C-alpha cells in the first residue's frame, strides 16, 4: 500500500523466522475487519468528519479535481463510495492506496484538518493515477513503488515551502528535491520491510526520470494557484485534442 505521511515503520519480529512482508497492511488494521453498518459508522465523529472533509476536497480542491478528470480520461473513473474508505489506522500514517482493491484509505483518526485531507487525497490519487496508466508492480518491484512515491511527494504539495517551514526544515538551492527524496524514502520504509539502503538506492536510481514526470499536471504545483493553472491547462489541452 502506498502511504502519505509516515514517520517510520513499526517494528515487529518473529522469533527464529524472517518476517514476511505484509506490504504495509499492518498500518491499516480496519482493512481486515468486517465492514460496520452505516448506522454504527454514523455514530463515530471521526468517520463523519472524514467523509465531510473528503467531499469538500473532491468538490473544491484543484489538485484533486485535476487528478479525478485525468483518471476518468484514462478509463479509471473514481467513485466516492467505491474508491475511498475512511478508517482507523496506525498512529504514524495518514492514508494509503490499496492496489489490490484500487481503493484509497483515509486515516480518519489522524486527519484532523482540511488542508491535511487535501494533501493526503492528492498524494493517494497520484498513486491511483500511476496504477491506472502504468503496469505498476507495487508488491515486488521496489523501483516502481519508489517512482510513484517520488511523483506523489513532488506533485501533491507535500514539499511546498509552507509545509517545510511547518516541519522546521529550511533550505535554499535544491531543497524541494531533497524533500521529495526524503519523503519518498520514508514512505517506502513505512510500507515495505526493506533496509534504508535498499530504499535509498531504489529512489536514487529512478529519481531523475520520475521527478521530471509531471503528468497529469504538466508542472510542479507549488501552490493552490499553480494547481488551478494546471487544472485550466489540462482542461484546455483536452479540448484541443478533442478537436483534432
TrEMBL record:
Keywords: Hydrolase, Metal-binding, Metalloprotease, Protease. GO terms for molecular function: metal ion binding; metalloendopeptidase activity. The keyword Hydrolase applies. Pfam families: Peptidase_M76. GO terms for cellular component: mitochondrion. One of its GO terms (biological process) is mitochondrial proton-transporting ATP synthase complex assembly. Its EC number is 3.4.24.-. Belongs to the peptidase M76 family. This is Mitochondrial inner membrane protease ATP23. It comes from Toxostoma redivivum (California thrasher). The gene is Atp23.
